[in-house]
Amino acid sequence: MTAELAVGSLPSSKTYMYVDHYPYELSDQFCGDETYICVNGRWHYLFFLFDAVKKIILSYPVSSNRDTTSAIRAIDEVLLKMKEIPENLIFVVDGNPIYLLTQHFLAQHGISFDVKQVIGLTNEDPVSTEYRPLKQIVEGLNRTYKGNYRPTHGLGSEHGSVSFVTLFVAYFNFLRPHAALERKVPVVHPALLGLPTMTARWTKLIELAQQWIVEQRSASLFV
What's the domain of life for this entry (predicted)? Predict the structure, then answer.
């Protein structure tokens, strides 16, 4: 694990709730991919759904199966973060049919979006030619994650795998500068600006997560 992500003792459950409920400003172009990770000696699948324009990770479920149910969950977690579903919503993915099945399933529930499938390693069709750059973006995200995950030599439990990827997402969205964003972080939080070290920014981010949970619990008492 990199020095920036040396976070084994951090309260990941609080971070998870904050990261998943943060009011992100999103585009209408998203890309997704799955990658293998080892959990308790067995291969699992990490599904990343990613705002290709804003460079924000929005969905990151870990599943023991690479199936339609997992794809539905991954895309649904993105839809839940939207204030409203854009008319021209696009998900760019690989040729796995689970994403088309997800599209058909959600269409039956009144949720429409387009799926652009980038097939293979070379551009043999117009869709792959047009959308491969977006697919390559999420493949780059997978490589970045693997660079942090690989030194673990696998994770010991499903809970541990979720905790690890949650902390990675918090780091990626709020703390890691991106070259494609002119060395800015995807989510610029005023409370994190000007803090001198990564440790200070991590500490403040966890504090913000704790405050958010307290506020949500207090609000629920008056509902």
Answer: Bacteria
